[in-house]
Amino acid sequence: MQVDNAIMPAAGQAQDFFLGGHVDGPMVMVNLLKFKDKAEYPDGSDPDISGRDAYLRYGAGVQACLAAVGGKALYSGPVTGIIIGVVEELWDMVALAQYPSAAAMMAMIALPQYKAIEVHRLAGLAGQLNIRTSPGR
Description:
The protein is built from four helices and four strands. The protein has helices spanning 13-19, 51-68, 102-110, 112-124, and strands at 27-35, 72-78, 93-99, 125-133.
């Protein structure tokens, strides 16, 4: 199994995710997050904060964005170990977010307030995996 952390979807990946004919309806996104040691803001601001702290700024702001589209944060916490399987390097955090549909998630990332906080996500993340799950299926 190959695992590639990324910050943004590869070409065509977002279109397939949102428009690829998958079963629509409620979904929970599993976010496996890897942080930069130090945040990297495009304007050079806050050079001494950690990538984790930059991402936590994003996490605080995304709560209202999720609520605006009928979603909610379900859980977030640090990865502290692994019992089955082997990975080269553990992710730093797991976060679960629930959306009423893929369309709701797409609407959220188009919100002006989301675009305003995304700078913290990009400054803090070294990479991530976003995994869609369908509750109750």
